[in-house]
Every structure is written in C-alpha cells, then in structure tokens.
Amino acid sequence: MIRKEDVYRIGTFNKPHGVHGELQFTFTDDIFDRVEADYIICLMDGILVPFFIEEYRFRSDNAALMKLEEVDTAEQARRFTNVEVYFPISHAEEAEPESLSWSFFVGFRVEEIHHGYVGEVTDVDTSTVNTLFVVEDIRGEELLIPACEELITDVDTIHRVITMSLPEGLLNLDEIDVAD
After folding, report:
1. What are 77-101's pLDDT values in tens digits?
2. Is residue 180 part of a domain?
3. What secondary structure letter does DSSP report for 166?
4. Which of 61, 90, 139, 164 sits a CA distance of 20 to 30 A from 14?
5. Closest CA to 50 of 41, 62, 59
6. Which of helix, strand or coil describes residue 163?
7. In this structure, are 18 and 87 located in the same domain?
8. Are 135 and 151 within one domain?
9. Could you say which of 34, 60, 94 is where a domain stops?
10. How does DSSP assign 12-78, residue by residue?
C-alpha cells in the first residue's frame, strides 16, 4: 500500500486529449522526466494508485500530454479528469539535490541552526518572485520562510529535514509592534 508520506504532489491531470487515452497534465515538478521511474501515482477515490507511463511529450514548461499503460480510449481517460498526480519520494531522492523542485520539500521538518526545530513545510508559495516555504510552527501558526539555497545549510532527504541559517529576527516577526 502506498502511503501519503511516501509521495509528493507533482501536478494534476486535467482532461483527456484526443481519442487514444492521452491526458493533459499540468505539473509543478517535471521530476518524472529527470529520474528513472516508469510510473506516477494518482489519487483515485481516496487511494494512491500507481500507473505506468507509456509515453509523454511536453507542451510547455508546466504542461505535458501523458499516455498511461492500459488507458487506450477517451472514455478510459475521462476517469482521470482533475485527478491529483504524485511521485514517489524514494525515486526523487535519486535526482541531484540542486535539480529538486521546491514542492519536493512539502512534509519536511525545518530546523534552524541556532533555534532548532521550527516546524513542518505544509506548502510552497510560488505566487511571488520569491518562493516561500509555508511552515506550520510548533504553535500551529503559519510562518513564511524564504526558500532560497543561500539560507539552506543541509538537506537530509532520508530523515526529511531541511536545516537553515535564517537571518536574525525572521522567526519572531510576529513580536514586532508596528505603529500606523
């Protein structure tokens, strides 16, 4: 059985393309193209199910057409409409660390070299020019931490820990009293 903590989300199948079972695939991580893996994992009716990739071709930097084995008609492909697509963490770990996308780090613990445990990465915000880790801290509050290589001192993919050296004051921004 595939567990949620063994995979990370890389995109969504949008809708069928053509009549031979191809699917439009919008992705946030093209890891399936950068490592040796023959399959992706789909969330089907609440269960993570592996599907072998027959072929794919890129349409843009974040879209591809993908054909899965034994999905040969538009009708079979329709059941994948708006289905979330995941990738096994164990295969992603084979990639060079600098080639991993930021979304790979969702679920990692964040530790700061001076303050220790900060929290867990729950999301990655790429809506601005500066990518941010969305971290739930020990109080259950949301922190936004810059996701940049200069602040990361170590990445332990086996134990799923990111060690960072954060600028002084970043972790206690909520304590600052701003007067209007």
Report:
1. 999 999 999 999 888 777 766 667 7
2. no
3. P
4. 90
5. 41
6. strand
7. yes
8. yes
9. 94
10. EEEEEETTTTEEEEEES--HHHHS--SEEEEEETTEEEEEEEEEEEEEETTEEEEEETT--SHHHHH
In a domain, 128, yes or no: yes
Same domain for 22 and 57? yes
> Which residue is listed with tokens 């600052």?
176
DSSP code at position 90: H
Q: What is the pTM of this model?
A: 0.67
Domain total for the chain?
A: 2
**What is the rounded distance in angstroms from the CA atom of residue 109 to the CA atom of residue 52?**
31
What residues form DSSP beta bridges with 45? none
Find all residues with CB under 8 Å of 150, minimum gap 6, and list them. Answer: none
Look at residue 135 and tell me if it is in a domain: yes
Residue 4 makes CB contacts below 8 A (sequence gap 6+) with 48
Do residues 89 and 117 share a domain?
no
Tokens 């990739």 correspond to 53
Q: Based on the fold, state whether residues 112 and 83 are members of the same structural domain.
A: no
Which is nearest to 143 in space by CA: 176, 113, 170?
A: 170
pLDDT tens sequence across 9-67: 899 999 999 999 999 999 988 888 888 889 999 999 999 999 999 999 999 988 999 99
What the block records as the tokens of 30 is 């093209």
